[in-house]
Structure prediction request, 314 residues.
Amino acid sequence: MRPRLLIAAQVDAVIPHSARVRGLRLRPRHREAFPGFVPGDHVQLQHETGVRRDYSLISAPDDTSRYEIAVQREPDGRGGSVLFHDGLSPGDTVFVSYPQPGFRIDPTASDHLFVAGGIGVTAILGLLPALPGGSRGVLHYAVRRPEDAILTESLARYGVDVSIHSSSMGTRLDLELVVARAPADAIIYACGPPGLLDSLEEVTVGRPNGTVRVERFAAAPPPDELLGDAFAANLLGAKRTIEVGERESLLRALRRSGIPLDYSCESGVCGSCVLEVTRGDVDHRDLCLTDDDRRTGFMAACVSRGRGAIDLLI
Prediction:
């Protein structure tokens, strides 16, 4: 797991992309450049209040004097997107993590099919600098209204064939047709809301492993939802045991007990709250850990649970 060290930065510019989406251009406060990154990486942004959220990097990897991200305002969310969308102006201070790995372009493929829904287009745009020369890229971009389509000029710079599908205009994205028309050896990359990605997984059943690559974002469950059986977490460093109820996550139980722990998405996507498990059986429900991470004893505290007692290196 890559460390989440934070770098002081300032908001250099706020860029309106649509009624709900603003771009933030960030520059480091105390150094000449940010750390280098690979197309597909994302960063975690921390507000001065301590609120953290993860965003795809959409700036050019060869210019690390700045990072650029895009924030979509979600008024019915947990407040983070509203804070970053409404509450930041040029000159404000924020803190940025070192780049974290996302999904990757296959450099050996000659055909690449991209599927984006809404703000998920930022994860696709972040990948495009790695599109191999001479290969063909096709993007199907689903939005509610035509004016919701953002960053289209940036997408065009990479020579990708972009089709915009607007449900309000009667041109809803037909995933089954799009996938059927793609070359059999095309690599498919997708980011967007859960319904879009679930449908894509259904219509790509039977394609070879590794040819469908998905990056998800998800909302945290309601606080009173039944999450699973209660279990005990033995904190080896703190020399104490906490009980995790059936309606709370391990993350919430730790914070309730006064144990500080970094977190952001609360949905198993960002990897901020990953802990090391030294003993016990874990019900893994995250989207951020690899199979190797799970085998070697890591779990995401926000969504994964113990099957019985587990020992944690805290």
